[in-house]
Write a structure and sequence with these properties.
Blueprint lengths: L5 E9 L6 H4 L19 H4 L22 E4 L11 H9 L3 E4 L4 H10 L2 E4 L2 H9 L4 E5 L4 E3 L5 E3 L4 H9 L3 H7 L1 H10 L1
Parallel strand pairs: 1-2, 2-3, 3-4
Antiparallel strand pairs: 1-5, 5-6, 6-7
Length: 190
């Protein structure tokens, strides 16, 4: 997993509320256990028509969305069933952070374990972000802040262990393996 320290990017805005995991990655694409290639199915039912052609009015199909690594979404993002494929699809598309006033707990947990940073902000900040698609933001994980154009900084909560893992580019297993000598020493003493 790539370490996450700071990220500066323009935003893509999906203002809808209650975007569930089946909208993020429809169930018909859950037949794989690998992450590669899932980005092309991200928001598939919104992004493509019934023939599979891109819908020109969908935000991810617009040229101004190319290269954006921060998704700003409406309240209650990632609700619905638990599926690691949802953060995998977002990451494979190129996103590294999702910003919302509310991110569903299971989606949040799956995201943190896979290198996607869920950033929870207050209503005023969210309102500004939703009204300004393409704004350039900087996410600083070490300080837990989101910097807006004009210099305003907003703090966001993140659990210390998740922060440590993201900053160091390790998942939970990687963290445990990095401590194997200490674990072995403890076992020898026990």
């Amino acid at each position: 997993m790539e370490p996450f320290t700071t990220l500066t990017s323009r935003t893509v805005v999906l203002a809808a509320t209650n975007i569930d995991t089946d909208q993020i990655i429809p169930a018909r694409f859950l037949t794989t256990t690998t992450r590669a290639g899932l980005g092309k199915h991200l928001f598939a039912d919104w992004r493509y028509d019934e023939r599979g052609a891109p819908r020109p009015d969908f935000v991810l199909n617009r040229s101004e969305s190319a290269g954006c690594r921060i998704l700003v979404a409406g309240r209650n993002f990632g609700c619905g069933s638990s599926r690691e494929h949802a953060p995998w699809a977002l990451l494979d598309h190129g996103f590294r952070a999702v910003v919302s006033t509310g991110i569903a707990d299971i989606f949040r947990s799956n995201s943190l374990k896979n290198g996607l940073l869920p950033v929870i902000v207050d209503e005023a900040t969210s309102g500004w972000l939703l009204a300004h698609p393409g704004a350039e933001l900087t996410v600083d994980l070490a300080s837990g802040t989101l910097s807006l154009p004009g210099g305003a900084r907003v703090s966001f909560p993140i659990e210390a262990f998740a922060r440590h893992c993201l900053l160091n580019g390790v998942d939970e297993l990687g963290y445990l393996l990095s401590r194997s000598s200490e674990i072995e020493a403890y076992e020898r003493r026990a």
